[in-house]
From TrEMBL:
Membrane topology label: Multi-pass membrane protein
Localization: Cell membrane
Family from the record: Belongs to the polysaccharide synthase family.
Protein name: Lipopolysaccharide biosynthesis protein
PANTHER family reported for this sequence: LIPOPOLYSACCHARIDE BIOSYNTHESIS PROTEIN WZXC, PST FAMILY PREDICTED COLANIC ACID TRANSPORTER
One CC-aspect GO term: plasma membrane
Species in which this protein is naturally found: Pontibacter korlensis
The entry's keywords: Cell membrane, Membrane, Transmembrane, Transmembrane helix
Transmembrane segments: 42-60, 81-104, 116-137, 149-168, 174-194, 286-307, 327-346, 358-375, 381-402, 414-434, 446-467
């Protein structure tokens, strides 16, 4: 990467990481409060409605977000075309969703879904207005501003309006109104930052390159959505909103922290990968480095969540959510693989290798659909195991794709998981020992959970920074250099960093 691009990427990581930490803390507090104010059925209804809305969103956006970021040469007429198309599609799908909401409710056998979907359909219009500005911010890698907008909108919408409305007995509508308010505030903030032209683009030529790439991206995103939401669709239809609420909250408990850990990387990685899409060797090196670092964090974190699941559920959700524990324990492993594997998908997006990705996702949907059917008799835990096995299959398929696209050997691709798996086993083992001792002594849940978190955090830091696997040493060296901590100065901190790099981070 050029120095300017690398500088933007590092700045994006810094600000994205700060935003991620802040959002993670806020979302844990919000989730904990809402789980105590609302019943599982409320979360089940929102999960069903969200599936319906997300299904429509892939047609309403048509991949224009990714197209604006990925396109190497972007002209003003392309921006006008993207805004015009997004606005028209947003209006169209708001109306279509409003009219079809009763039929979607009939599919799930729950009439309460109809008014929720109709109101949430306004999100299509809000997205149509805001998506162009948000895409331009991402394309320019202005992640500091994106982070500020997101945090402000979240605080006002969820921590403010959402919790107050839930306390005032608005029930499931407190979740709906908070979601729409957050999207509206983000839209206002994004356009205030990037005041692009809103004059309609009547010439059809600028639409062609955007829709050529965007339509395929939209179809791929739809396939990925179907594979991810099979569980929600089937559980909501077969087992009802109560069971879906249990599954949804278990999924959230592991998906949310992993999303927070990886969202910064993914936001920075796609525009960065797109700018070097023609340099296969450099792209391959960055891909391997990214996965090595990410796996070293995500896998131990998910292994730790699996062991600490009983306390995590009781602390964050409350006693009434105990049935979610075994589901969370299984899902935590599968979701770890999902977040790591998505980097291979980002490479395909950046290089516009979309036909292969379409085939891969179709195969994955067939695989995971078959697994859901075979394991349906085991209830929610069976669905969780289907997710885990399906992610193992997807990882194998993506390794085949990366072998062809980036010319990476299978040994190279498998080896990058090793530091994360080793650290994960050690972290999980440490948490298990502490948990066993404290549980047998009937220690209060809060103290047990605090001990689990402290044990996992300390072990992960020690294993990653003090005794890094040899595959991690060069990556950590690179991170320190990119973050401006080269250790070349005369200050005490610089001398400590230099000493650390000499004795710990020397290349294997």
């Amino acid at each position: 990467m050029s120095k300017n691009l690398a500088s933007k990427a590092v700045s994006g990581l810094k600000w994205g990481s700060a935003s991620t930490i802040a959002n993670a803390v806020m979302q844990i507090g919000y989730t904990s409060a809402m789980a105590r104010l609302l019943a599982p059925e409320a979360f089940g209804l929102v999960a069903i409605s969200s599936v319906i809305l997300r299904f429509g969103s892939y047609f309403a956006n048509m991949g224009l977000t990714k197209a604006l970021v990925q396109k190497e040469e972007l002209e003003p007429q392309h921006i006008r075309a993207a805004f015009t198309a997004s606005l028209v599609l947003g209006l169209l799908f708001t109306g279509i969703t409003w009219l079809l909401a009763p039929f979607a409710a009939d599919f799930f056998g729950n009439p309460d879904v109809t008014p929720i979907v109709q109101v949430m359909a306004l999100s299509f219009l809000i997205s149509g207005v805001s998506v162009t500005s948000l895409s331009l911010l991402e394309r320019d890698m202005r992640f500091k501003l994106i982070s500020i907008i997101e945090m402000a909108a979240y605080v006002i919408s969820y921590l403010g309006a959402g919790i107050v409305l839930a306390y005032l007995d608005f029930g499931v509508w407190s979740l709906i109104y908070a979601t729409l308010l957050q999207a509206t505030l983000s839209a206002i903030g994004a356009y205030a930052a990037v005041r692009h032209s809103v004059v309609p683009q009547l010439n059809l030529a600028p639409y062609k390159p955007l829709f050529s790439y965007g339509s395929r991206m939209s179809f791929i995103s739809l396939l990925e959505f179907l594979s991810q939401e099979f569980g929600t669709i089937l559980i909501g239809r077969v087992l009802g909103s109560y069971k879906l609420g249990l599954y949804n909250r278990a999924y959230m408990l592991v998906n949310l922290p992993m999303y927070m850990l990886t969202r910064t990387f993914t936001k920075v990685v796609f525009p960065s990968f797109s700018k070097i899409q023609n340099d296969i060797q450099k792209l391959g090196r960055i891909y391997l480095s990214s996965i090595t670092l990410l796996a070293a964090i995500v896998i131990p974190a998910c292994f730790g969540i699996s062991v600490a699941a009983p306390e995590l559920v009781r602390i964050v959700l409350g006693e009434q959510w105990g049935e979610s524990v075994p589901v969370l324990q299984v899902l935590s492993i599968g979701i770890a693989l999902s977040f790591i594997t998505m980097f291979a998908g980002i490479v395909c997006d950046a290089k516009a290798v979309l036909n292969i990705k379409i085939v891969l996702n179709v195969v994955f949907i067939l695989v995971i659909g078959g697994l859901f059917y075979l394991l349906r008799e085991f209830g929610l835990v069976g669905f969780a195991f289907a997710v885990l096995i399906g992610e193992l299959v997807r990882m194998a398929m993506y390794q085949r794709v990366m072998h062809r696209v980036l010319e990476l050997s299978y040994r190279q691709q498998l080896s990058i998981y090793l530091p994360g798996v080793l650290n994960g086993v050690l972290v999980a083992g440490g948490i298990y020992l502490v948990s066993s001792l404290l549980r047998s002594a009937d220690t209060p849940v809060a103290i047990t959970f605090a001990a689990q978190a402290l044990t996992g955090g300390v072990l992960l830091l020690v294993l990653t920074l003090l005794f890094p696997h040899k595959l991690l040493r060069a990556e950590l060296q690179m991170v320190f250099n990119k973050m401006g901590m080269s250790g070349n100065g005369d200050s005490p901190i610089s001398r400590i960093i230099q000493k650390y790099k000499v004795h710990i981070l020397k290349e294997a």
